[in-house]
Every structure is written in structure tokens, then in C-alpha cells.
Specification:
Length: 106
């Protein structure tokens, strides 16, 4: 499915997440999405465009978007990033030194 919108990258990101979440929930599968300044696309096997568009209602957009963001790994990655930088700051503040082998790599 290809959507051409002129709202900008942030709005396209939100709309892509909503429609991708609806498609994934409908098919019980992961779907691929791509975002640009001028639109977005959703790719997957046997996508039924009419059902996906009918699942997304304007009044429920905020609720579906919150669910879609909660189910992604974005928040976990952001939390890990903040945790890592906080740990580095504390080590520098307390002047604790460790070797690079003690750092966990994900």
C-alpha cells in the first residue's frame, strides 16, 4: 500500500504506524513500512487495503497510535540509550574506571 501525503515526516510517521499496526493486527503478522517527507508505504503478504483503511477511524487515531507505539521497541531502545549515558555519567562523576570488556554489548 502506498500513501502520498503532504503533511511532513512526523505526521507521515504517525499515520504509517497506525496503518501498519492495523495491518499487522488484521493479519497477525509483521509488516514493513517506509516513511518519507511525501508519504509512506506498508508492505506485507496479502494485505487487504479496504479492511485496513476501514479499521482506522479518525476518532480512534490517538488510541491506536498509543497502542502501536507501546508495542514497538522504540521506547525500550530509548530507555537503554538513556540508561547507558547515565551510567557513563555516574562513572565519570564517581571516577570509577572499568575495562572495555565489562561493558555489555547488545
Amino acid at each position: 500500500m502506498l500513501f502520498h501525503t503532504l503533511y511532513g515526516r512526523r505526521v507521515n510517521d504517525a499515520l504509517a504506524r497506525v496503518y501498519a499496526y492495523a495491518a499487522a493486527r488484521l493479519k497477525h503478522r509483521d509488516v514493513e513500512m517506509g516513511i518519507s517527507d511525501n508519504g509512506f508505504f506498508i508492505a506485507g503478504e496479502d494485505l487487504n487495503e479496504d479492511k485496513i483503511i476501514s479499521l482506522v477511524k479518525a476518532k480512534d487515531l490517538r488510541v491506536v497510535l498509543d497502542e502501536a507505539i507501546e508495542k514497538t521497541e522504540i521506547l525500550i531502545l530509548d530507555l537503554m540509550y538513556v540508561h547507558h549515558h547515565l551510567l557513563i555519567f555516574l562513572m565519570l562523576f564517581l571516577k570509577i574506571q572499568n575495562n572495555p570488556g565489562q561493558n555489555q554489548c547488545n
